[in-house]
Amino acid sequence: MSNPLVDMQKPDVIFCIGTNMTECHPVAATGLKKAVARGAKLIVADPRRIGLAEISDLYLPLRVGSDTALLLGMAHVIAREGLIDDAFIKNRTTGFDTFFEHITQWTPEWAETITGVPAKDIETAAMWYGSADKSAIYYTLGITEHICGVENVQSLCNLALMTGNIGREGTGINPMRGQNNIQGAGDSGALPNNYPGFQSVTDPGHQAKFKAAYGTEVDLEKGITKVTALELCGDSVHAMLIDGENTLLSDPDREHCEHALRSLEHLVVIDIFLTETAELADVVLPATAWGETDGVCTNTERRVQRLRAAVPPLGEAKSDWWIICQIAQRLGFKGFDFDAPKPIFNELCRVSPIYAGLDWDRIEHSEYQWPVPHKEHPGTPRLHEETFVNGRGIFSNVHYRDPAETIDEEFPVWLTTGRRLQSYHTRTQTGRAEGIDYLLPEESLEVNPVDIEKWKLTDGEWCKMSSARGSITIKVKAANRSPRGTVFASFSFADVPVNVLTGSGYDPVTHTAELKVCPVRLEPL
Question: Is 0.85 topped by the overall pTM?
Answer without folding.
Answer: yes
